[in-house]
Specification:
The protein is α/β, with parallel strands linked by helices and about 250 residues long. It has one domain: TIM Barrel, CATH 3.20.20. It is built from twelve helices and eight strands. Strands 1-2-3-4-5-6-7-8 form an eight-stranded parallel barrel, surrounded by six helices. Strand 3, helix 3 and strand 4 form a beta-alpha-beta unit. Helix 1 runs parallel beside helix 12. The longest helix has 19 residues. The protein is globular and about 45 Å long. The structure holds 2-phosphoglycolic acid. 2-phosphoglycolic acid binds next to strand 8.
């Protein structure tokens, strides 16, 4: 059985004091949750402070990006050893906002995945089609290209640490969620791809999150689909009570 994983992607929201307050409230609200893995992904500058607040809780810590070199003259970048040193266990890679605004490609996603894995960080690899791609019937081609490229050359052992997030770009931050059937269709397709690349055991074990306007009132229906194993939540993870409701779907 796959344990659902619900991660909050805070994006570029919260200054340090707000981040601490948010996670302090969340920690208390979800202290009894054991059947779902919960992760928060604050901005880099708050990771250390959030880590301290999280002490003694089951909530995991993740970053929103990672550079593929360990160190060097790369002004403004953050490496996997750095993330590990502040207590991260997860890192989001290839989010559509990074693909759209910061030139992320499947090739750079792949480099970041290897960098994360080499430090023992678990990548949350995001894939998803734009509205234009969906409407022109390219959804499966796009997802296949992103999965094959982003996960290229990974071993079965490495794949055991990877979480995938299917986030249709047209559903992110728009209030337009994919219907449970639309999401399930793509999740099943991703699992089939994983089966072709890594074999059945890996395909069945890999957790595939849905992301894109997940809210307390649609979480249950989405998460009850057979191939949806949790959620990557943006907006609704910035309020402790709405994130709590999603976690307790
Ligand atoms: P949203 O963002 O929940 O605000 O749509 C999801 C995401 O970008 O991960």
């Amino acid at each position: 059985m796959r344990t659902p994983i619900i991660a909050g992607n805070w994006k570029m929201f919260t200054v340090v004091e707000e981040a601490k307050a948010l996670v302090l409230a969340l920690k208390d609200l979800v202290k009894d949750v054991t059947n779902v893995e919960v992760v928060v992904c604050p901005p880099f500058i708050s990771l250390l402070a959030v880590k301290d607040v999280l002490a003694g809780s089951r909530i995991g810590l993740g970053a929103q990006n990672v550079y593929w070199e360990k160190n060097g003259a790369f002004t403004g970048e953050i490496s996997a050893p750095m993330l590990k040193s502040v207590g991260c266990t997860y890192v989001i890679i290839g989010h559509s906002e990074r693909r759209t605004y910061f030139g992320e490609t499947d090739e750079t996603v792949n480099k970041r995945v290897f960098a994360a894995l080499s430090e023992g960080l678990k990548p949350i690899v995001c894939v998803g089609e734009t509205l234009e791609e969906r409407e022109s019937g390219q959804t499966f081609d796009v997802i296949k290209r992103q999965i094959v490229g982003g996960l290229a050359n990974l071993s079965v052992e490495q794949m055991a640490s990877v979480v995938i997030a299917y986030e249709p770009v047209w559903a992110i931050g728009t209030g337009k969620t994919a219907t449970p059937a639309q999401a399930q269709e793509v999740h099943a397709f991703i699992r089939k791809l994983l089966n072709d690349i890594f074999g059945q055991t890996t395909a069945e074990a890999t957790r595939i999150q849905y992301g894109g306007s997940v809210k307390p009132d649609n979480a249950t229906e989405l998460m009850s689909q057979p191939d949806i194993d949790g959620a990557l939540v943006g907006g609704a993870s910035l309020k402790a009570d709405s994130f709590e409701k999603i976690i307790k779907f």
